[in-house]
Amino acid sequence: MTPTSSEDFNSFPDCLMCGDCCRINVISMTEAELERIKDYIQTEGIQPIDYAGERCCLQGEDGGCMVWPARAQICRLHHCKVPRRWILDEHPEIHVEDDVMLVNMHEEFIGTKAS
Question: Tens digits of per-residue pLDDT, 56-74?
Answer without folding.
Answer: 999 999 888 999 899 988 8
